[in-house]
Amino acid sequence: MAEEYYDYDMERRRRQSLAEESLNEQLLGITRALSETVVSMKEIVSALTGADDKKLKEIHRRVKESKERVESMKEDALTYLARLGDLLNTSTLYKDVFLGLTRIAQMTEGIAYRSYLLASNTNVTSTTIAELLTSIAESIQREFERLEVAIQALSSNPKKGYEEAQLVTGIEDEVDNLYRQLTFAMYRELRQDLVALMLLRDIVDMIEDVADTIRDAAENVKFLALYRVARH
Q: pTM for the whole thing?
């Protein structure tokens, strides 16, 4: 009887391990699909400060297509999670990371569209604002790269995954600082152009939301990494 129970337990752990490997692969797949979108943030900023609405229209088309791919992959992942039932204790963490990554894709699409609207209607000629926007886009790219490495290491080296996810918090603090500087610069330099001020404020708020969402995803990845370390 004891041997039968042991076999059942082994089978459950085997199924859990396979499910985690599959989910980690799906996380990595979505992260890679999203990577190009996050990288395009710098391209969006460059086109926005150059008032290149044609370029922004093209970027928006690409980002929207990428968002739709990410949403489709997320639906597949959530369906897989639902089929697992209560097999994993970490299902909610995985679900939150999938939803977070999808939200990043959706917000980036929103940033691209609003940037197109802004460039189509008015110019942002401030050098200070352009430099701060470029800096914040570069910081978000570094933040996302660390998240991608953390997710990549979840299966093979969870300790490294934890350490990489931990780095995301420090980079997000940089984004917060840039966001505060940018907000002040916008109010100071665009006070005569309310259309530009309102649209750019919307864009910058969404950029800051992207940074927060990457941080939140990294917090969940840290816990997933700790969980794997504790079991092995």
A: 0.93
